[in-house]
Amino acid sequence: MDLSTQDPRRGVYAISVAAEMVSMEIQNLRVYERRGLVDPDRSPGGSRRYSPEDIARLHRIRDLLAEGLNLAGIGRVLSLEAEVARLRRENERLSQQQARGGGRGPRRAG
Fold first, then answer.
1. pTM of the prediction?
2. What is the DSSP secondary structure assignment for residue 104, as one 8-state letter?
3. Fewer beta carbons within 10 angstroms: which end of the chain, N or C?
4. Backbone phi, then psi, for 103, in 5-degree steps?
């Protein structure tokens, strides 16, 4: 099975594999899940399944820990990064809409 063509949000890696991929201990991954920093899928039997996106997020968590952030700070950074990405996508969408002539010009004050 070629995982590169699969949905990057689909959980495919068991917790032991995910922990090895990011050079972390299994118990740390469980803590990060309890703290809401990562949300792996579950198999029908209840086992955690980590997606490629989860693995990337765990790498980011590891990097932020290495920079000295605590878990609360990491949660805030991840939240802000997600918001920046959302705003960039929205800005791009609006820019494209305006370039096609579908958007209105800037609003004028009173």
1. 0.79
2. -
3. C
4. -100, 155
